Amino acid sequence: MLVKINYTFLAAFAAGLLATSGDITMTWTSPIYPKLYSNDTSINPLGKPITQEEDGWIGSLINIGAMIGPFIFSFIAEKFGRRIGLLCIAIPHITAYITFAFARNVYLFYFGRLFGGISVGGGYTLLPMYMAEISEDSNRGFLSVSLIFFWSMGNLLPYAIGPFVSIMVLNLILACIPISFFIVFLLFGVETPYYWLKLNKPRKAQESLMTLRSLDKKGVQKELEHIQKNFKREEGGHFSDIIKNRGLRKALIISLLLIIFQQLSGVNAVGFYLQSIFEASGTDIPSDISSLIYGFAILITCFIPIGLVSRFGRRTLHMVSCVGVSLSIVLIGIFFYLHDSTDIDINRISWLPIFSLLMYVFTFSIGVAVIPWTLSSELFPVNVKQISASAVSTTCWITSFIVTKFFNDMNTLMGRAGTFWFFTGCTVVACVFTIFFVPETKGKSFREIQDLLLT
């Protein structure tokens, strides 16, 4: 049993390095913006500070790339396999980081953000699918939620390294992550049995299961028959099947709304502009140190949902997470209201922004961060999984683009307090939606989940 778990986890670990590469891109802007706004040419490779408009495009272009990525890499995964698809995702990541390292004009930063975004969109589409398809029903939730550790590590690295090194050194270091993924996954990545069955190659599917489970033919026969039985029910899927089937239509609506609510919680706005938020708050703690504390909190709290998801289920964790996120964002809004709109002395509560953001990352990580992606990989049968994953991922990045591109405009129009209270309202609505419409998928097979959606 130990060897069996270890090899499945080895394949999952190799894939997880790609998740780290992707979320580096998400927080990369936080330590980069202060350098690009600097008048010091030894710090700013552009030779002059960027404008607010350039700031907005650098922050948001990743989302445009991420809208495109799901379609490109879903096609590759469908045509050449999940393994090849994941390997291809590493290439734009490597290209983007090397471009950033040697960029001397803002358009190269635009290119790198757009190109890196293509990989981010592809990763968020294929990684949950890959984790779900290499796992057993009993550990599928654990493996899917374990992605949050690798995403969290990616979030941490720019905070931990970025403020203390040059833009060139930072990006050369970051390029090593996708390069390492490519090498490790090339050696240890296993194609999923679902893909081989899709190609009508049951022997290949059997070999895949034997490798993943470290068992002989007899040992994987029951699981293979179970997969084949479900697969035959699910062959030949198209987008029209989602629209026509009441259960799949319900699954799509749930998945799309959960991912929209995730982005409307303000996660990417906070991550992209974290150091700037701390600087604006005027707290006694240096902004780079506050950002580093926030990054470590992301990494530490990522272990919590891995254990909780198997005990309490997806639905419960998402509800609890929404409540915690709402409370933490309310506190941030209150701080900025007192800071910007009153004469009240806030020195005594200068700790509130870092406390609120630590509360935010803790409560966000236990549910809102990962449950929408986990559910989107569980609610759909294999024949429409690529279609649904592309739709969910694209919706995520469209919403993220809108939030990050207009974050500064929202601050100008509604004030910083109003912006965070807007995120609060969206998260409250997400909690209500979860209570009434989101099913529990804990411990259920793909077929049982489909049956549940029809009730």
TrEMBL record:
Ranges for domain Major facilitator superfamily (MFS) profile: 9-442
Pfam families: Sugar_tr
Subcellular location: Cell membrane
Membrane topology: Multi-pass membrane protein
Record keywords: Cell membrane, Glycoprotein, Membrane, Transmembrane, Transmembrane helix
Keyword Nucleotidyltransferase applies: no
Family per similarity comment: Belongs to the major facilitator superfamily. Sugar transporter (TC 2.A.1.1) family. Trehalose transporter subfamily.
Protein name: Major facilitator superfamily (MFS) profile domain-containing protein
Organism: Aromia moschata
